[in-house]
Design goal:
The chain is built from 11 helices and 12 strands. It has 336 residues and is of the alpha/beta class. The strands form 2 sheets. Strands 6-7-8-3-9-10-12-11 form an 8-stranded mixed β-sheet, sandwiched between helices. A 4-stranded antiparallel β-sheet has the order 2-1-4-5.
Length: 336
């Protein structure tokens, strides 16, 4: 079995915006929203890759396209060595048991009419995980215990739970089919800060205990640092920098990554507010900037950045950056 659980090559996802009646009458062209553009990534077995970027950068779309919840516009998706890019929904059924997702919003990801028991056991039955009622009950209790929920919660509805508890139910449902790969789509962003650490620690423990491979999506670098062994930074549908957690946090090269790092909260009593991550607003993916997509907000942008698409520079075997002006002349690879 290959050590690479997931590999995507030149993956793109473009949405066509439905035309209004005036658009049709005036024969205006269909608008296309580029959500993911020519992304290539690998995730090795037992690894957690953190995918980070501001809201609207295409992170969630990339995760859902990898899972084939969206059909890719172009590119290739290899899961455990198997090309799943064009498989039908029927063919994907057996594969979905090995790749699961925990959604961002714990309030909308659960059916409000199903109890915790019903939500989890319907998954066990659909995939025929258990051969008897006794085994099903045993597996259900094991899943509740695994995510830190008491047996008393089994017959309660989602409305009886807090956000953190609902996210634990969603996690138990995802783990019920014993997946090898898990996409965690901003699983703590909708939770109170006091609950976030509990869910993050739980995910880290389960990853180690169950041997999971994870794609962890977030917009906070502080969260990514806590759970990831490698980091990919996304901006307007492209990966602008990728490397080990140490490389990205200690030797960041892309101006966008540097801006995100500057915005990290620091324990400075006299400083009440964190800096803005980046000056200006993210452009619309319906009207992509020319050249480097970050040039409209970049503090070091030059004419070259506005005119030409930047090359992908390989800084080390594990560190890449998409920039005309980096690395800087005094830059050295970690460990050199």
């Amino acid at each position: 079995m290959t050590d690479t659980v997931l590999e995507i090559r030149n993956l793109s996802k473009v949405f066509e915006i439905p035309r209004s009646l005036p658009d049709v009458i005036l024969q205006r062209p269909v608008q296309k929203l580029v959500a993911v553009d020519d992304v290539s990534l690998k995730i090795e077995r037992y690894e957690t890759l953190g995918l980070v970027g501001e809201s609207g950068c295409g992170k969630t779309t990339l995760g859902r396209t990898i899972l084939r919840l969206y059909d890719p516009t172009a590119g290739t998706i290899l899961f455990e060595g198997e090309d799943i890019t064009h498989k039908s929904q029927k063919e994907l059924q057996s594969i979905r048991r090995r790749m699961q997702v925990v959604f961002q919003d714990p309030y909308s990801s659960l059916n409000p009419r199903l109890t915790v028991r019903q939500a989890i056991t319907e998954v066990l039955r659909f995939y025929k995980i258990c051969s008897s009622k006794e085994e099903e009950e045993e597996q259900f209790k094991k899943l509740l215990e695994m995510v830190g929920l008491s047996a008393d919660s089994a017959d309660q509805f989602p409305r009886a739970f807090s956000g953190g508890q609902r996210q634990r139910v969603g996690l138990a449902r995802a783990l019920a089919v014993q997946p090898t790969f898990l996409v965690a789509d901003e699983p703590v962003s909708a939770l109170d800060v006091s609950i976030q650490a509990q869910v993050l620690n739980l995910l880290a423990d389960l990853r180690q205990e169950l041997g999971l491979t994870m794609l962890f999506v977030a917009h906070e670098l502080s969260v990514i640092k806590h759970v990831s062994s490698r980091v990919a930074v996304m901006y307007l549908g492209q990966i602008v920098e990728a490397g080990t957690t140490e490389e990205v946090f200690e030797k960041a090269q892309h101006p966008y990554t540097e801006g995100l790092l500057r915005a990290l909260p620091r324990p400075e009593p006299g400083r009440r507010h964190r800096q803005a991550a980046i000056e200006g607003d993210i452009p619309s993916p319906l009207r992509m900037p020319s050249g480097c997509r970050f040039h409209t907000r970049c503090p070091i942008a030059q004419d070259l950045c506005r005119a030409e698409i930047p090359p992908l520079r390989q800084l080390s075997p594990t560190h890449q950056v998409l920039c005309h002006l980096r690395p800087t002349p005094d830059w050295t690879a970690p460990g050199v």
